[in-house]
Design a protein that fits this description.
Blueprint: H1 5-22, H2 37-51, E1 56-59, H3 74-102, E2 105-110, H4 114-117, H5 123-143, E3 148-155, H6 183-195, E4 203-206
Parallel strand pairs: 1-2, 2-3, 3-4
Helix pairs in contact: 2-3, 3-5
Pfam families: adh_short_C2
Family: Belongs to the short-chain dehydrogenases/reductases (SDR) family.
Protein name: 3-ketoacyl-[acyl-carrier-protein] reductase beta subunit
């Protein structure tokens, strides 16, 4: 995260401005290296002091570098797994300490349709997202007796900074709903699962029907 700290800070400032203008809600941010348990612990403690106990955790951090497996460097493989899978595991482990204490909470992990279907050139990314599915379902079983829900959203093509260079020129030829999804539509799915107190261990596809044709 140190290499991308400036980008993260800019994202936080943009979110603060947008939230204040659109909703009137105050937003605060933390720069955190999710591959580091110590960094996560520090951020969670800071949030707990300033905002109170975390009731909803959304794990959305991810990186992707489209390459065939034999062209993938060891560093790229490690970075992808550490960010997409291990980061979520470490984050859940830390935040759950607080949720268990209060006997309530909701965790929503952001996976991908390729974690279910696979995709050429995305072997490592697909592996990291498939791992999230198994992790989500297992963790849901562990914490259900405490009243904590754990679910996963599997988006398809969504227009973000990460996907801007890899989305196909004419997605309508591939996606049944004939358009790329928006971050707002994924956010609506997150909001639904975060408040769905009787749903846990679920994988919710939010892909415009892309899984039907892959």
């Amino acid at each position: 995260m140190s290499k991308n700290g400036e980008n993260v800070a800019k994202s936080v400032e943009s979110l603060k401005k947008w939230s204040k203008e659109k909703t009137g809600v105050t937003v605060s941010g933390q720069v955190c290296d999710i591959s580091s348990p110590a960094s996560i612990e520090g951020s969670v403690k800071s949030i707990d002091r300033s905002l109170g106990a975390i009731e909803v955790l959304v794990n959305a951090a991810a990186i992707n570098s489209d390459k065939l497996l034999f062209n993938s460097s060891e560093d790229m493989i490690k970075d992808t797994i550490e960010t997409n899978l291990m980061g979520t595991i470490f984050m859940c482990k830390t935040v759950l300490k607080h949720m268990i204490r209060h006997k309530k909470g909701s965790i929503v992990n952001i996976g991908s349709v390729v974690g279910l279907k696979g995709n050429t050139g995305q072997t490592i990314y697909s592996a990291s997202k498939a791992g999230l599915i198994g992790f989500t379902k297992s963790l849901a079983k562990e914490v259900a007796p405490i009243g904590i829900t754990v679910n996963l959203i599997a988006p398809g093509f969504v227009r973000t900074d990460m996907t801007s260079n890899i989305i196909k020129p004419k997605p309508e030829e591939l996606i049944p709903l004939q358009r790329i999804g928006s971050p707002e539509e994924v956010a609506e799915a997150v909001h639904f699962l975060a408040n769905a107190s009787y749903i846990t261990g679920e994988v919710l596809l939010c892909d415009g029907g892309l899984h039907l044709v892959l």
